Known about the structure:
This protein is mainly β. The protein has helices at 17-21, 45-52, 64-74, 299-304, 309-312, 454-463; strands at 10-16, 27-33, 40-44, 59-63, 75-82, 97-101, 109-115, 122-127, 131-136, 142-147, 165-170, 176-182, 186-191, 196-202, 215-220, 223-231, 234-238, 268-274, 280-287, 291-292, 295-298, 317-318, 322-323, 330-332, 337-343, 351-366, 375-384, 389-392, 396-401, 404-409, 415-420, 426-428, 433-438, 441-446.
Amino acid sequence: MLACGHDREPSGTPVCVHLRTCRQPWLSYVRWYTGFAMDSELLCNSCAHERETGRPVTSDVVCQECLEHAATAVGRFMGVRGKPEIRSRCEAFDLPLENTALPRELGKIVDVSPILRDGRSHWLLLAEDGLIARFDADTCEWNRLVRATLPSEPDHEPWRDRILKPRLHAAPNGDFAAIVNDYGYYGQVIDLRSGRVTLSLYGGDDNAETVPFSFTFAHVKGRTVAIHRTDWNRLDVSDPLTGTLLTDRNPTSWGPGEDRPIHDLDYFHGAIQISPNSVRIVDDGWVWHPVGVPATWKLEPWISDNVWESEDGPSRKAICARHYYWDHALTWLDDSRIVIGGIGDDDQDMIEGARIFDVSLTGDGEVRWRAVDGPWPCELTAFAGPAGSFFSDGHWLFSSDPSGLSRWDVIDGARTGYLQGFEPTHYHPGARELVQVVDDTLVRGAINGGETPGARNNIARRSKQPERRDQ
C-alpha cells in the first residue's frame, strides 16, 4: 500500500507529508534533486529548508494520480533545488587543437559552414560585409565566391536574448549557399558556381523573433534540396538550382467565419536539422500557449509522395514538450536517435542535461496538442551535466559551453573527457572536426579514432528497457 492509501502503481517520485496531505491550494513546493542519478522529490518550502540545514525530512511514494493532484491541484511549483548526480569517468580524450589563420583580407568572419563533398576540412566563410569565400583549412588556400545582400530589418526587437544575426548554410556538395537572418524575416539561396541568387527567402513575420530562421540543405534521392520556412506555420522544399517549389499545396490560412482547413498546423517552425543520412528532419518549434515541442518526420515521403507530411503525415512525431522552452541544444546521433538538451517540463524546473530519444520507436503517453497529435517516441535515457551546444560523431555526445568542451557516454551518461577553454560552435562530420572562430583564427579540434562506445550502444539499445517519464 502506498503512502496515499491507494493500491495502484507507484509514481516513482516521493512527496513530502505536507504536500501529500494538503487539501487546499496553494502550498509552495520545489523539486529537490537528491544527488543520486536523476532521483528527485517534491518538497514544500518548509521541508526544503529542513533539508538544506541537514535535518531529516520524510517523503513517501504515492500513486501517479495523487502525485499530479499534489503538483498541480494544491501545489504551486517554485523551482528546482538540490543537484542531480553528474557522473564522471576518466578515459583518454585525444583532441589535439590546431590554430589555422583565416584570410585577413576578408575582415571579420561572422559564420562558417562545412562543405561535405570530399571529407576534407573545407569550409564556407561569411564575412561581416556579406562576402562568401571557400576555405581549405588544411592548406589555407581560399577564394572569393560571391557577396550576399539581405534586406535590412531596422525595426527588429529582440525577444529575450535572441539577437538578429546572419547565419550561413552550405549545401553538402558546396555548390550552393544560403544566408538567413536568424530571428528575422529574410534570407537567400545562391548558386556559388554562377553567383546567381536562385531563391529569395521570406519566413513570415509572426513571432519570427522567437526562433532561428528555419533553413537547411539536404541531399535526398540523389538531389540537393533547400528546406525553408515560408510562413510561421509552413515549411517548404525548393530546388536550389532553379528556385522551383517542390511542395506546392493549398494555403492553410483561414479567417473569422471560415472553416479551419484540414491540414492547418498550429505550430511555429524553428531551427531544423537533418539526420546524418538525410532520413529524418527535426524541427525545434513551439505551439501556443508557449510550449516548445520539437517534432520530426521523414524526408523522402515528404518530397516524393505527400506534400502534407510536415503538417500531419504518418511519419511526423512530436518528441517532447517543455513550457516556455525551445531553441536550445539538440543533435542527431544517427537516423533514429536524437539528443535534446534540458531536463524538465518547464523553463522553471529545467536543469542542464541531455535526453535521448529513439524516434523510430513508440513510447508511453499521447501528445496533448492538436498540432502534434499522436504517441510520444521512446525515451531511452536522460542524464545531467551536458550544457550549451550539442554535437555528435555518431558515438559520443559533445557539449560546448563557455567553460569548455565535454565528451559524454550516451549509454551511462558519464563525462569521459573535458577540454577547458575550447568552445566549438560547428562540427564538420566529414573531417571529424569541431571548430571555433577566435578573432582571425579557426581553432580546430580533430576527433581521432580509437575506442568508442559504439559497440556498447548497439548492445544497450537491444537490451535496455526504456524508462518511463512524466510528460
